[in-house]
UniProtKB/TrEMBL annotation:
Keywords annotated in UniProt: Endoplasmic reticulum, Heme, Iron, Membrane, Metal-binding, Microsome, Monooxygenase, Oxidoreductase, Signal
Protein's UniProt name: unspecific monooxygenase
Required co-factors: heme
One cellular-component annotation, GO: endoplasmic reticulum membrane
Pfam families: p450
GO MF entries: heme binding; iron ion binding; oxidoreductase activity, acting on paired donors, with incorporation or reduction of molecular oxygen, reduced flavin or flavoprotein as one donor, and incorporation of one atom of oxygen
Length: 490
């Protein structure tokens, strides 16, 4: 009986706290749907397609509105003007990282992706500089991507034109580029450790995009006690982290401070330089999490974009033919594609942009947070409030991109057939928190896909008009359906 009374009192207090917090903040924040106590607006949202829910709310409440995901308010930015005004014009104020409980449980706000303040600024600055300068005087990053593109083609030749699922082959290529930068090592595509890493990354993106994980991130204290896919994600991250830690230990034993070999060496040297500084962010824990962040963000996103891109090219055979015609004209068959070719290949560039725009890989990006109290469009947003940016509303804006639900490279072509840039092209987000690896990802997409199309004809196993490009997951990330194709040598 005492337990029942305690539970009733506890729930009553929680209910009163919820009502008080929601009513006290609602007058200052942007308008939004009326939240229910404790659970907020979650019953009004479709967690299988969050972007669709945000678009529906924006039609009622405008481009800036408030949602309660549980007890906590989130301010949603919908449309190019609102997103640009916040992330670019007020970049410093909107540069915080919002709460993402599952990732916080894994990395404890260390590393780059989910850190804030001084830690985030120092680690991001170091990582950008290291990636930018890496290989100067040695092999450039472009050399590494070209080498991997060659290995990818040789692996695809081994399929002998038979139907194959490209998931893991396409995952291996960008992962190997990251491995060469971080570990100074690439793997054979049949290496079991390598395949295990690929499987963990692939499974995590799929599970992070499930409705269950969206609910977990709203009620982590409750969901921690329940079985579910969050435990699989945590186990997968633990596997990846243990692998990275093993590599860090190997680097520590063989480190030559006068001859850094890779990203890990550069970080270890930085650690030695600041060993007497009690406030340093260059620690083993931050190294482990930074490498894991770069590893994960630089692998699965690029490979998923490539996989989705090939599916779209299988369906739209006339577009593929035009890209291959441009490859034949500009590059030919006697040499490998290089980044200098890109400026002379406007149609291919338009197709690559359209792939990223159309698939809208991470529809709401990672959550932001305001770093101080902010007055935004006559609303008051308190420091620490989570900010959700709808990248879908920018990438699928029907004024900038007529018929945005149609895959059309013409969205990035002018009337003279030249490539046309667009400020609305934000697949990597924008502002201070823009994706660290944007330059590398764009290089990989160009070199990998042009090298594949230079060497193979893509043959679908079903009629192109019957190919379904609808994603099988549509929440945190859009995951393309599984499919098979034949790579026919040309």
């Amino acid at each position: 009986m005492d337990l029942v009374v305690a539970l009733v009192l506890g729930l009553s207090c929680l209910l009163l706290l919820s009502v008080w917090r929601q009513s006290s903040g609602r007058g200052k924040l942007p308008p939004g749907p009326t939240p229910l106590p404790i659970i907020g607006n979650i019953l009004q949202m479709d967690f299988k397609d969050i972007s669709k829910s945000l678009t529906k709310f924006s039609k009622v409440y405008g481009p800036v509105f408030t949602l309660y995901l549980g007890l906590e308010p989130s301010v949603v930015l919908h449309g190019y003007d609102a997103v640009k005004e916040a992330l670019v014009d007020l970049g410093e104020e909107f540069a915080g990282r919002g709460s993402f409980p599952l990732s916080e449980k894994v990395n404890r706000n260390l590393g780059i992706l989910f850190s804030n303040g001084k830690r985030w600024k120092e680690l991001r600055r170091f990582s950008l500089m290291t990636l930018r300068n890496f290989g100067m005087g040695k092999r450039s990053i472009e050399d590494r991507v070209q080498e991997e593109a060659h290995c990818l083609v040789e692996e695809l030749r081994k399929t002998n034109g038979s139907p194959c699922d490209p998931t893991f082959i396409l995952g291996c290529a960008p992962c190997n580029v990251i491995c060469s930068i971080i570990f100074q090592k690439r793997f054979d595509y049949k290496d079991q450790n390598f395949l295990n890493l690929m499987e963990k990354f692939n499974e995590n993106l799929r599970l992070l995009s499930s409705p269950w994980i969206q609910v977990y991130n709203i009620f982590p204290a409750l969901m921690d006690y329940l079985p579910g896919s969050q435990n699989t994600i945590i186990k997968n991250f633990d596997y990846i982290r243990s692998y990275v830690l093993e590599k860090i230990k190997e680097h520590q034993e063989s480190l030559d401070v006068n001859n850094p070999r890779d990203f890990i060496d550069c970080f270890l040297i930085k650690m030695k330089e600041g060993k007497d500084n009690q406030q340093t962010e260059f620690t083993i824990e931050n190294l482990l999490n930074t490498v894991t962040d770069v590893f994960g963000a630089g692998t699965e996103t690029t490979s998923t974009t490539m996989r989705y891109g090939l599916l779209l090219l299988l369906k739209h055979t006339e577009i593929t033919a035009k890209v291959q015609e441009e490859i034949d004209h500009v590059i030919g068959r006697d040499r490998s594609p290089c980044m200098q070719d890109r400026s002379r290949m406007p149609y291919t560039e338009a197709v690559l942009h359209e792939i990223q725009r159309y698939i809208d890989l991470i529809p709401t990006s990672l959550p932001h947070a305001v770093t101080c109290d902010v007055k935004f469009r006559n609303y008051f947003i308190p420091k620490g409030t989570r900010i959700i940016t709808s990248l879908t509303s920018v990438l699928h804006d029907n004024k900038e991109f007529p018929n945005p639900e149609v895959f059309d490279p013409g969205h990035f072509m002018d009337e003279s057939g030249n490539f046309k840039k667009s400020d609305y092209f934000m697949p990597f987000s924008s502002g201070k928190r823009i994706c660290l690896g944007e330059g590398l990802a764009r290089m990989e997409l160009f070199l990998f896909l042009t090298t594949i199309l230079q060497n193979f004809k893509l043959k679908p196993v079903i009629d192109p008009k019957d190919i379904d490009t609808t994603p099988i997951a549509n929440s945190f990330g859009r995951v393309p359906p599984l499919y098979q194709l034949c790579f026919i040598p040309v």
